[in-house]
Amino acid sequence: MYKFNSDAIDAGTRLRLEEEFFSNRFTLSYSGLNRLLYSPQLFYNDYVLKGKQESIDKYLVEGKLIHCLLLTPSEFEKQFAITPKDLPSDSAKALLHSLFAHHTELSQTDDYDGRTQLEEYGNAILDILVDMNLHQSLKTDAQRLEKIIIDKNIEYWNYLLNADGRSIIDDNQLEFAKQVVETIKAKSRINQLMGLTTDPFDKVQVLNEFYVHLPAEHLPFDLKGFIDNLVIDHNAKVIRINDLKKSSKDIQNFKDSIDYYRYDLQAAMYYNLIVNTLAKEYGYDVEFRFVVVDSLMQVAPYKVSEKTMAEWVNNLNTKLEEASYHFEKRDFDLPYLFAVNHEVEL
Question: Distance between CA atoms of 322 and 336, rounded to whole angstroms?
Fold first, then answer.
């Protein structure tokens, strides 16, 4: 996979980007926090040096698609583009997306020479093939390029050029997402929790893709989040946070996904954002749920108990303090545990 290369940035540009980043107060999201905890260097590349690239992992795209069709269907045309029916292989598709990211980055520089045709990126294609260890058994570069510069791949490349930054999906992904949405709508319990069908007399307010910003004076950054589905139930005097998740695991093993992707941090951050904003305004209790969809189209809610949420919030606070270290020291070399210890003993 083609990677953003921070080493290619000269010292002057690096210093300018650092000063620009630290001269403005940063607003940290769950995804940014997760990236910083996982690899400060990747966070530095993504946010300080502005090398962030959108992930095209299938489950992430499908999750985003389900969100859109269920919660903000009017945004579909702006957010998604449907691919041609005759698609490249998975490896070729990955290469083309990496190359397109390189093309996008290059086109924003003063040195851009106007290249748009796939065959004009021969050297970059060869570099990506080496990174992917693809077609390396062939004897010559010409033979490797012949495997990539074919009609099917050229058509897909041209499609990427015209997709205008939208997420790219195929017919199968769209059909799956539509079926998931219908399954969700058919479940009365989930309809009630998410406020999908409300009566004007119910005194229930529904906010989808709700943006929350929380100033955090005790931290060197503010906090933010886009909450999938927020339901303010004025009758029950409760605010329900519903986070829709597309899981690659079966629904019974979603706990593994929580641990692996640190969804506990996301839940705690969203909970904290609402507790310190809307909940204060209304004086209401706050509940958090994951609404989980698995690959078998099984859909069910996971409610986070008060005890579990308290543990998750405590953990979030610890991780925010660790994140603060990297900002205050401007040290993005190693994760916190290694940054503050000479060595880690097993």
Answer: 6
